[in-house]
Design goal:
alpha/beta, Rossmann fold, binds (2R)-2,3-dihydroxypropanoic acid, about 325 residues, seven-stranded parallel beta sheet, five-stranded parallel beta sheet, elongated, 2 domains
């Protein structure tokens, strides 16, 4: 007998195929609301549920699920949308999908970094409007990336992958992390135990830390003021780390040269004021959005569900 599984969102085709092979799966063709997930879990006596970050699995949702549910696997590395204590209290495993999305998320950080420093959005706008005016040697100049210091806040897997890429571009690396990395992972980067101490050194700042109560609005008027003038700000982590009103003030005042943002305080209804800045390069939370990575995330989530339903502790258990 196959175990019952809900896939209450539009999963990549390969993931849907595997889910149907391995489970008695109910696959939605669009993202279901949490109320719909709860209703479907009761109707199907679901044992496993795979979710995506927009589906907020709060205590209330967890408490409404039937006893049949043994595991909820999120297709994301971030798990700020899951209530871990509530799931633990009900004995429901929660899992995420680390590792498999590290490289693509680091790639998008570099995409934002290069576009922000080299005025990618403005150049694109010029070409889109049919470039007819030649620029002089002193016009439309960007910032040279090589030789700049990139400060990375959050030096986990993704932060380290960003550092590796940035080294390839000749950048110097500073980082702030709860713990100092061993030398083989630090690779010569300068460690700061305190964000405030690192910020004055960051010509470019990249956020790569999880969204938690501790990191909420860690970027605010006070911390932005500590950056050197003309700094570049990159965020592929979570919008909750940034007080966006303060970021907008720093862009308006010219404190920042540019920004590159993949994540926002409100998604998808992001603050439209941000798109008015031609020096802000925006992407719609697409860090892991490649065919290969989205398949790998789905497979990893399914593996976690299988492990939990075999009575094992899943490899990516969050409690
Ligand atoms: C993640 O995996 O956490 C990505 O940001 C997608 O939400």
């Amino acid at each position: 007998m196959k175990h019952t599984l809900l896939l209450p969102y539009r999963a990549p085709q390969n993931v849907t195929i595997l889910a149907n092979q391995r489970f008695e799966a109910t696959v939605a063709d669009s993202e279901l609301s949490v109320d719909e997930i709860v209703a479907l879990a009761h109707e199907k006596r679901a044992e496993g549920i795979v979710v995506v970050p927009k589906q907020k699995i709060t205590k209330d949702v967890i408490n409404k699920l039937p006893d049949s549910v043994k595991v909820i696997a999120t297709c994301s590395v971030g798990f700020d949308h899951l209530d871990i204590p509530a799931a633990k209290a009900r004995g429901i495993f929660l899992t995420n999908t680390p590792d498999v999305l590290t490289e693509c998320t680091a790639d998008i950080a570099m995409l934002l970094l290069l576009n922000a420093c080299r005025r990618g959005r403005e150049y694109m706008e010029i070409m889109d409007s049919g470039w007819r005016k030649a620029y002089s040697q002193s016009e439309m100049l960007g910032l040279k990336v090589s030789g700049k210091t990139l400060g990375i806040y959050g030096m986990g897997r993704i932060g380290q992958a960003v550092a590796d890429r940035a080294r390839g571009f000749g950048m110097k690396i500073a980082y702030c992390n709860r713990r100092r990395l061993p030398p083989e992972q630090e690779k010569g980067a300068t460690y700061f135990a305190n964000l405030h101490d690192m910020l004055p050194h960051c010509q470019i700042l990249s956020l790569n830390a999880p969204g938690t109560a501790d990191t909420k609005h860690i970027i605010n008027d006070e911390t932005l003021a500590l950056l050197p003038n003309n700094a570049v700000f990159i965020n592929v982590a979570r919008g909750s780390l940034v007080d966006e009103a303060a970021l907008i003030r720093a862009l308006k005042s010219g404190k920042l040269f540019a920004a590159g943002l993949d994540v926002f305080e409100n998604e998808p209804a992001y603050n439209l004021e941000l798109k008015e800045f031609h020096n802000v390069f925006l992407t719609p939370h697409m860090g892991s959005a490649t065919q290969e990575t989205r398949d790998a995330m789905g497979y990893r989530a399914l593996e976690n569900v299988e492990q939990a339903l075999r009575g094992e502790r899943p490899q990516d258990a969050l409690w």
